[in-house]
Amino acid sequence: xxxxxKNSKRSKGILGRYGLIVSILMLFSVMIIFSAGKIMFSSEGxxxxxxGEEETVIRDRVILPKRGNIYTYDxxxxxxxxxxxxxxxxxxxxxxxxDTLTKYVGDLAIxxxxxxxxxxxxxxxxxxxxxxxxxxxxxxxIRENKSKGIDExxxxxxxxxxxxxxxxxxxxxKEIRTFPFWNQRSNRSGLIAEExxxxxxxxxxxxxxxxxxxxxxxxxxxxxxLELKYDSLLRGVPGxxxxxxxxxxxxxxxxxxAKEGWDIVTTLDAExxxxxxRALNSKLVETEAESGTAIxxxxxxxxxxxxxxxxxxxxxxxxxxxxxxxSYMNEPGSTFKTVTTMIALDDGVVTPTDSFYxxxxxxxxxxxxxxxxxxxxxxxxxYLTVTEGMELSSNIVMSKMVLKGYExxxxxxxxxxxxxxxxxxLTWDVPLKGIEGTSSIRYPNDKTNYWSKTTLPWMSFxxxxxxxxxxxxxxxxxxxxxxxxxKPFIAKQFVEGGKVVxxxxxxxxxSKICKESTLEEIQKMLVGVIxxxxxxxxxxxxxxxxGKTGTAQIASGGGYSxxxxxxxxxxxxxxxxxxIFVGLRxxxxxPSGGGMAGMVFKNIAEQTYLRKVRLTVEECKVDSTMQKVxxxxxxxWKNNKTVLSxxxxxxxxxxxxxxxxxxxxxxxxxxxxxLALNSSIIPDVRGMGARDAVYLLEKSGLRxxxxxxxxxxxxxxxxxQRLVKGTTITVTLR
Length: 734
Fold this sequence. Notes:
The structure is a single chain. With 734 residues, the chain is of the alpha+beta class. The chain folds into three domains: 149 residues, Penicillin-binding protein 2a (Domain 2), CATH 3.90.1310; 343 residues, Beta-lactamase (3-Layer(aba) Sandwich), CATH 3.40.710; 107 residues, 2-Layer Sandwich (Trypsin Inhibitor V, Chain A), CATH 3.30.10. The chain is 35% helix and 23% strand. It is built from 21 helices and 30 strands. The strands form nine sheets. Strands 2, 3, 4, 5, 8, 19 and 20 form a seven-stranded mixed beta sheet that branches. The radius of gyration is 39 Å and the shape is elongated. The N and C termini lie far apart (134 Å). The relative contact order is 0.08.
């Protein structure tokens, strides 16, 4: 019994002690839960969480989206986004130690100065050690605040110290991470590579004005061209991230990912664009013009394949400047005569064979003189038909024609312009201001734009109106496109994530600009301008061309000074593929729509045709009469001799002492003939290729302007003429 009582007391004692322990544990649990609740819900808890996050989390950092790319029609990159990296150091990195930094900073500074020589090794060393000194000052301030009980956060500027002036690409970043001290983990080296997007143009300045530019700060987006017009699509949507310290290492944590911008596929053809830029630039240099424009449009689709806007810069060179193809608001001159003739034919005012007296090229109307381009010669041309008036670009024929039909009702003439579609207000793929990109053609009853008695006849030959080049191009393309006027365009597709979101086709401005009979007559007249009229020089050996020259004085200070010369047309005339407009502002020399703008047209057309036209199998059959041996061009004898030797072709008398030769082929062998050269006379480069001709002429001190391709068939200064250094010589190749 006693034993049982003893055991019972022992059990009660154990239970009592156990209960005490449980009670104590429960009390501690309640206290922990209370403290946790206090930390979670009280202001003091929020304070400590903020302190913890300040030390381990950097919030709300923007993730810049990748800007969309801009492509040519066949997916060649015109503008793309490349990641670049800003290089910083975090001197509060957990694993960074002063002794290790001091040991390796010299080697690191040397490596940086060799890779990025914009600073010396000692300068890099100072930047890095100053960063460490800044951390020590911050540490000292934190200790002082703590000892004084000051509850004030010390800004840690040494956490983000920029080391390199310029951003680096990914290849450079990989190399940087192998440098002394920076070849450790980032929590020890403190290396931070802050990624951002930069805009690159693989084709350089090709179509630079049309593609456009972005602001230096890419976050601001597009500044001009397609980059500005479609900025909202290209820029994408920014994301959000924060940097958090995890196991002593700072890591990016993405809260909301960025959405990449859409890609834009354009209608542009890099090859045609390059041809157009070279051709226009060459003529601008030759004529020392102020600016120039060239636009190439595919007839059936309305796709712009090339567009060039060149302005003369302060250094005398030419570069993409204003969007003159859309914004140059000038009186078009004689390219407008086609509009006048179309309206008069369509309204039955005249027929192609009707004639008007032009005499010596002077016609007075309402005390003002209308002059034809030949009026100073005093030549009496008698009567010219409407067709001849178009071919010879007669202002008098145009004036008398519109006065015959519309003198008492000028609004009917302007209604004819409306009927064609040239007064429609259109929008374009490039950003413009005010009236830019629209035609400004007055109406007789418009009280805000005075209509005088001479407005009608002067309008007939391209004055009293303002029409940008893009409208003139659109009009001539309608003639080439069987009367269907379509709006030229550049943006072809919007692409998101590799999938086409939206695709564009040309907007139909007018399904039929005139009667079928009128169109046929106009087409014949435009061919006649090339064959019989003011643009004979534009005729090509490869295909037929239809077009019209334009020469207009430029309004300035209430009068007129300088000239704007232009040419608009299409090729091949019988089956049109492309329409081209070329305009030159303020060229020096005798202004000529055919000899200046027309030659640029011809150069672009021929090079485009030779590169783009594909012959059928039947057209490629061997001609039994064709010469079976190659034609060797005149030029450098050493190079030609090598070619002849490699091909094992027979050569006549050797003339090793001559550097430049002419080569003739007789029935047996190639006969080289020494080319006589004299530093004071123009050399003979006929029969040479472009490279040899340019080398020899420039070596002689001449400036060279090339037209065409193949071998030289003519040069603007005859061989043997006295040579004046600095003179520009035009060389034509076929």
